[in-house]
Amino acid sequence: MKKVEFVFDEKEDFVAKLKEIVDAGISPKDIRVITPIPVHEVDEILGTHPHRSKIKYFTLVGALTGFTAGYALTTYTHLSWENPPLIVGGKPLVSVIPFFVIAYELTILFGGIATFIGLLILAGLPSIKRIISPEDYGNKFVIQVKGESVEEIEALLKAEEEA
Amino acid sequence: MATKLSERLDKIDRDILMPMVKPGKTYWIALGLCVFFVLVAIGAWIYQLKTGLGAAGIRHPGMWGFYIINFVFWVGIAHSGTLISAVLLLFRANFRSAFNRSAEAMTIFAVMTAGLFPIIHAGRPWKIYWLFPYPTQREIWPNFFSPLEWDVFAVSTYFTISLIFWYLGMVPDLAIARRFFGGIRGFFYRLFSLGWTGTVPQWMHYVRASLFLAAFATPLVASVHSVVSFDFAVSIVPGWHATIFPPFFVAGAIFSGCAMVFTLVIPMRKIFKLEEYITIDHFENLAKLTLFTGLIVTYAYITEFTLPLYGENIFERDQFVYRAFGDYKWYSWAMIFCNSVVPLVLFIKQMRRNLLVLFIVSIFINIGMWLERFVIVVISLAHEYEPYSWGLYHPSIVEILITIGSFAWFFMWFLLFTRAIPVVSIFEVKEERVREEEK
Q1: What is the ipTM of this complex?
Q2: Could you give the CA distance from residue B245 to residue B223 in angstroms, rounded to a whole number?
Q3: Which DSSP symbol is given to A33?
Q4: 8 Å CB contact between B111 and B159
Q5: Minimum Cα–Cα distance from A10: chain B residue
């Protein structure tokens, strides 16, 4: 696939160029940006603010599953001795308060694991191709344009040169 | 600033990764000593396994001794790691980036150390899986009313989440390290950096995932030591049965954890020449946090002593009189001196900015917080309700060797960590640097 690549040493130059490219009407879908640190200006230009990450759904589902699992596990195990009931410390078989501790911990456990799995899925990690041959630009800021927009960007560059 | 930004960032990479290249002689000596004491402790443990728990000094009524003290102590040490990485992330406190990697490493290793003690204490390590709920033909399940079972869930969740959080923070840094190392080592950096590239969608999800994990870790940190305190507070032993225990334990845990960060990071900074990245201002901020939690701990001591003296419960009152003037009085007073008096020097700005003072204070706090667990565990059990069941606890040589071994085990992992993983979060330092330059 054809691609045009811009590599910058300075963050300002990189942000300015990115803005120029997007303003010229290049579709953000065809733009791939690689940075050594998260750059907030990029989020504004490309509309990739972390708010919009779908990871929150993983977290929510994980946390709810954990909470339910915590109560389900404790209730099930205490009820599995129901006939005859195994009374411990004179407390009801199903006690909401002590079971809450387990539910609380499992909410966090499942929620955390789900967030991690969500990150791996959404960020395309681990990538076997990249483990074998990493794509590494060091501390440079990179913009790549590919796909159908390549011709547009070439025309843009040409126009700039002429001007 | 004549150089380009990318070159300035390259310098940060080099400065932080440099210490990982070749360890000096001191490093090998320190590591060797740690391994030696770990082996001694393993030997002591094997002796205990062969002779039975009688090899330890735990006798009626002091059925909880050094092992439980160490468990509570190390879980406490673990706390500041999560606090520094998670809570300070939520508060956007910039000084965290200097400490978070080593503090999180400390958390992992401290939990690894703490987790050994229930196993050692319970006496039959080959049956330790009974702690976890699993279906069997015997239909036996753990008792979920027991705080000891809550502990199993709290501590194992804590370990898992801390590990995920630590690893997640490391991924972009491992991607930097893979540029600097070849061979097997480079292969492992490539493998564990998971093929990280730093594209915009990766950063977008990454930043969000870190925030969510921080949001989980914060209530987790409060819950773990609360649950540990329930081990005591849910019982009816005088001196343990107190509603103040959960916040008291959490504050104490953060206090001791911050002290341990000083103990580890001050020498590390000097040896690895990280003065530029871990500055005196960073230390001063952490010293303020230490002072603050120290004052909470002092307040808890005052409450703990005054309420029984003021109240009607003669057993509670007697327990606290015994604490101050009984057989173990020197432990109590030493605890108050180390935890409540010595940290007061941190009120003076010059002292907060003097690393030697901070280091010495941190050693006092470490000792004081270990003594606090001794005071709570041992003294309370030695002086319960009926005079015929009073008795003293004396640690055996096996317990002492295992305790020393646990410190060696902790430091051993920390030493290995400093060579294998960037000790400061590189991408966060860069982020902070760029932010400062733009101001």
Answers
A1: 0.90
A2: 12
A3: E
A4: yes
A5: B5
